[in-house]
Amino acid sequence: MEVQEAYDNLENLIAQGFITFEFSYNGLRGVLKSLSDKEYKTLYLYTDESDKIESIYYRLALSTYMMNGTNFLENRNNRIPELIDFYKKLPAVFTGQLIEYIEDLHIKYLDSVDCLEGFCYTKRSRFLWKALNNNLLVNANMYGIPGIENLGLSNIQENWIVVNKSLDQEEDYATQLNLSLIIASSLNGKGAKSISSKYESNKAEIDTYREEVIKYGWDKKRLEEQDKSEAWAAPLRTKEDLIHELNRQMTGVKDKHDLFMDKWYEQKIKKAEEAKNAIIKSQEEFKKKMLELPIDDSEGSKPISNADMEAKFKGKNVYSGAARSTESYATEDQQEKFLSVISKKIIRPENNQR
């Protein structure tokens, strides 16, 4: 959708609350209107979502603006049953065509909303704000369409009011600042000039930003920078950037940095789990091997007597490769000394017995 077309739609959506579509059928001339977000909520109160057919007829009734010159916005709630009975008598093919028209209006409605920020900064928007005297309740008299005031304010109108009140505050601030600088210049001309220079610099930056937004309908430059940086967190340069960043964080939308950190944490947790599982697997394999080893039925070692020792090592090499046995020693003292040395090396002490 072209920006100017979106601005035309937004002017109607703000001033009269809807955009329209005209149709004719066998001499019947009608005008359908777009439904606002609040009217969709009203639709859900009227019907059960599971009953699709009944929901279609209520949607057609709420979307009806005029029929053969009759305005259905006046006392609309009381005329809804009448409209439902009328649409039920129409051919199903034509009713389906009307639903397609309403869908096209809704798509046009959503496409126009994307340019709301840019429209709020335009001169036509500010003129409309002044013409309505800061009060949308007078729009019925301005457009000469009875019943508009019964629709209530949509989210588009509410946001437009908030932005314009903020712009009014900026204008009031600028007026008060200029008056203050006139007085301050007589007392401290240099200081007043410095304050004025800083204010003009900041105002020029904001005006440049808003001119770009007006041109495209939204902050195209910022979106392009975000796409170029592949959705990494962009540096905050202006007040609007800070607002966008706070909105992103409050709504829980993650940029690429957040997604990168989430992935990094997931990888660390995965590696820790893999290391833990590897240790458990190694322990299980070791335990399995130990269970497969043959069990020795022999009793635990214990001190033996001199006679048993002589019988065990008789005729064998037992020390430093030499053929030494108890028979090699001439006296009992030498034999006892030999047995003492050997027992320290191959026989467990008594305090280690099982």
List keywords for this structure.
single chain, 354 residues, mainly alpha, 4 domains, four-stranded antiparallel sheet, 15 helices, elongated
Total number of helices: 15
Helix fraction, binned, reads 55-70%
The proportion of residues in beta strands is 5-15%
Unreliable spans: 318-326
The strand order across the widest sheet is 1-2-3-4
What does this structure look like?
It is a single chain. With 354 residues, the protein is mostly helical. It folds into 4 domains: 3-153, no CATH class; 161-247; 254-294; 306-352, no CATH class. Helices cover 65% and strands 5% of the residues. It is built from 15 helices and 4 strands. A 4-stranded antiparallel beta sheet has the order 1-2-3-4. A hairpin with a 2-residue loop joins strand 3 and strand 4 (70-71).
Compile the SSE list and pairings:
Layout: H1 3-15, E1 20-25, E2 28-33, H2 37-46, H3 52-63, E3 64-67, E4 70-71, H4 76-88, H5 92-113, H6 116-120, H7 123-131, H8 139-143, H9 155-187, H10 189-216, H11 220-228, H12 239-250, H13 256-292, H14 306-313, H15 332-346
Antiparallel strand pairs: 1-2, 2-3, 3-4
Helix pairs in contact: 1-5, 2-3, 3-4, 9-10
Quick rundown:
Helices cover 65% and strands 5% of the residues. It is mainly alpha-helical and 354 residues long.
